[in-house]
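Entry 14. Structure prediction run on the chain below.
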Amino acid sequence: MWAALVLLAGGAAAAPALPPYGFGPILSLADPAPPPNRAIEARYTPAFVRCIGRADLSTITHNECLSAEMKVQDARLNAAWRVVFQRVGSARQPALRRAQRAWIAARDKHCLAQSKEAEGGSLEAIEYGGCMVDETIRRTLWLEGLR
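Output returned:
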């Protein structure tokens, strides 16, 4: 809409600055649980909610739940990415591609740091997988905000 307003006014459309992107905090296992992020939780699939709500949930099944959810959330991220990528135009696509690749590396590093305290234990994969799912949803929401 901003470009349409500028063009209607007879000016040249200048691209607005991208809103800042931020990762969630790195928490210690001793930290109190943060309040739920309703925007992220609203994006969980019903299958994931059912899966992690199982009475017989074990570490193995929890990891399976996270793995299945990550596939869905990654597909949603890629769909949002394709929309934004096409929308920005060919001149800005290389920069957006670099930014997305940098985000992927930063997300992976962030989630490794989040799971570091549980390293070597059964909680490590759950911490890492949960972080990956949540940060992927957070990025999808961010990309959707660029539409």
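Helices lie at 2-8, 38-41, 46-52, 59-88, 93-115, 123-145.
Filed with the rest of this week's runs.
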